[in-house]
């Protein structure tokens, strides 16, 4: 038997794009224009560390500028390369279109193992990288707005935004040049947890549609569902934590770089997270069975599989053996095009990455708007809202006294009703609404067309159609 060659990540994204585009009625020129990556900038720069000059390679790829700024994270990992950055930038275009954040798609990466450097060294490297990008408007509040991705977080975003501000001292919107910043540097409440929260909202929405749940051969609600999560980083951790603590799901498997934990009775996500923070991995965690071959747990029995780490983990070598009837792609590109086809034939339902993990960029959008408006969400309305509620409550209290035994307010009603929404509540409400609406736009295509077999193709069709419309509006 000849070995089957898997396409690269970017080819995989293109194949999925082509599959959807072939079901649409786009002029061929426009289809090509949407598919291709507009530009990828490669930078090599030196930083003097520990008495020596170290050379680093970084990328920022802009996939589509049908809307500006373009948006997407910056990843720090040794595996970063041009093909990957371009695939991720393309996914950002479709993701933003699907969840209606008014951005084009972009992505960046730096080839580095961040664990090899001290904090002050990482700051030097990050600032230098940001300088190179900002100099070319590849960091800019109106043109290109980075955010966190694998290997980066609030700290790196604060350095990048500050670097931009130092280079553009009169730009009043400097803080809007980067999202995912800490709260004290212009960030927004709920951004760190946003992608994981989005996974939870996506699953809740999926389970609101019994017809869809049935397609996956499942029934009921999230309560009691057995979940396996691969990768307990920021996204996997928050998703697993919220689903187990708030929706009654059972996390039966956790896969990490040093093996997997399995416990059919459920694993306490918070305690595994604490264990990882302390020991660096999941090995020797006491309340679950540890197996060194983590990847095998991907194939274990469960109701929902959440790949929340790297791309390409479900591929031609293991797709056939994946038992989960429902996969939600918390990572970008965890299922290769070849594996997607195998799973589709098996009837596995996949909630695709461009929708599932869009919570991050959605809350990034809120942060960007907050930075441009220079005011915290809820600051103007909160007390006014409370005052109006107070009016109703005092009327109800009057009624309460008047009706005596016959009627009284429920015990916590007053406290709950009186509280005006703060920023975090508004962010959650905006995110929840976004995830519901985007799911509905996908499922509408999925159910209304006989030639659309799966949610991924439906998602691409919705996204490509929107991008095409905005190109047309530009006269292309
Ligand atoms: N890196 C995240 C993603 O892949 C977030 C992007 C953003 O917030 O701009 O969606």
Task: Describe the overall structure.
Among the domains are: 39-185, Leucine Dehydrogenase, chain A, domain 1 (Rossmann fold), CATH 3.40.50.10860; 217-347, 3-Layer(aba) Sandwich (Rossmann fold). It contains 17 helices and twelve strands. It has helices spanning 9-21, 28-35, 82-98, 119-135, 154-167, 194-206, 210-215, 234-246, 269-279, 294-297, 337-346, 353-356, 359-373, 382-403, 413-418, 423-448, 455-473; strands at 39-49, 52-64, 70-77, 104-111, 144-148, 226-230, 250-256, 259-262, 289-291, 304-307, 326-328, 349-351. The termini are far apart. The radius of gyration is 23 Å and the shape is globular. Bound molecules: glutamic acid. Residues 71-73, 147, 149, 179, 332, 357, 360-361, 364 line the site of glutamic acid. Glutamic acid (GLU) binds at residues 71-73, 147, 149, 179, 332, 357, 360-361, 364.
Bound molecules: glutamic acid
Strand order of the main beta sheet, please? Answer: 9-8-7-6-10-11-12
**Shape descriptor:** globular
Fraction of residues in helix: 40-55%
Please give the alpha-carbon distance between the first and last residues: 47 Å
- Order of H and E elements: HHEEEHEHEHHHEHEEHEHEEHEHHHHHH
Unreliable stretches (pLDDT < 50, length at least 5) are none
**Record field, number of beta strands:** 12
CATH-derived topology of the domain at 39-185: Rossmann fold
What structural class do you assign from the helix and strand content? alpha/beta
* Sheet having the most strands: 7 strands, mixed
CATH class of the domain at 39-185: Alpha Beta
CATH architecture term of the domain at 39-185? 3-Layer(aba) Sandwich
CATH superfamily of the domain at 39-185: Leucine Dehydrogenase, chain A, domain 1
């Amino acid at each position: 038997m000849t070995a089957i060659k898997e396409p690269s990540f970017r080819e995989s994204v293109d194949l999925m794009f082509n599959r959807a585009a072939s079901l649409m009625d786009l002029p061929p020129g426009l289809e090509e224009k949407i598919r291709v990556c507009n530009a990828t900038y490669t930078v090599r720069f030196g930083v003097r560390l520990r008495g020596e000059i170290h050379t680093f390679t970084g990328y920022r790829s802009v996939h589509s500028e049908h809307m500006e700024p373009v948006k997407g994270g910056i990843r720090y990992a040794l595996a970063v390369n041009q093909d990957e950055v371009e695939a991720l930038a393309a996914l950002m275009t479709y993701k933003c279109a699907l969840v209606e954040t008014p951005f084009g798609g972009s992505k960046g990466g730096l080839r580095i193992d961040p664990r090899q450097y001290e904090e002050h060294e990482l700051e030097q490297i990050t600032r230098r990288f940001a300088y190179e990008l900002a100099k070319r408007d590849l960091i800019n509040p109106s043109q290109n707005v980075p955010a966190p991705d694998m290997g980066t977080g609030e700290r790196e975003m604060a350095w990048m935004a500050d670097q931009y501000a130092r280079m553009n001292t009169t730009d009043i919107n400097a803080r809007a040049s980067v999202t995912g910043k800490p709260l004290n540097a212009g960030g927004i409440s709920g951004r760190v947890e946003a992608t994981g929260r989005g996974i939870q909202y996506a699953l809740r929405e999926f389970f609101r549609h019994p017809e869809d749940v049935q397609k996956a051969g499942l029934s009921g609600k999230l309560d009691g569902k057995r979940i396996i999560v691969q990768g307990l980083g920021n996204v996997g951790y928050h998703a697993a934590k919220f689903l187990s603590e708030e929706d009654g799901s059972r996390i039966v498997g956790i896969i990490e770089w040093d093996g997997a934990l399995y416990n059919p009775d459920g694993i306490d996500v918070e305690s595994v997270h604490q264990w990882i923070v302390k020991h660096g991995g999941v090995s020797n965690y006491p309340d679950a069975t540890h197996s060194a071959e983590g990847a095998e747990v991907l194939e274990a029995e469960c109701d929902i599989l959440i790949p929340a780490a790297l791309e390409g983990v479900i591929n031609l070598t293991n797709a056939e053996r994946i038992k989960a009837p429902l996969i939600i792609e918390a990572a970008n590109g965890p299922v290769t095009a070849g594996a997607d086809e195998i799973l589709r034939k098996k009837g596995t339902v996949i909630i695709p990455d461009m929708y599932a993990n869009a919570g991050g960029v959605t809350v990034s959008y809120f942060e960007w708007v907050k930075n441009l408006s220079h005011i915290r969400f809820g600051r103007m309305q909160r007390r006014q809202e409370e005052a109006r509620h107070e009016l109703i409550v005092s009327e109800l209290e009057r009624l309460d006294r008047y009706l005596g035994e016959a009627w009284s307010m429920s015990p916590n009603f007053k406290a709950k009703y009186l509280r005006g929404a703060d920023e975090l509540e508004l962010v959650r409400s905006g995110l929840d609404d976004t995830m519901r609406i985007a799911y509905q736009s996908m499922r509408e295509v999925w159910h209304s067309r006989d030639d659309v077999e799966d949610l991924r193709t439906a998602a691409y069709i919705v996204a490509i159609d929107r991008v095409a419309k905005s190109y047309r509006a530009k006269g292309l």
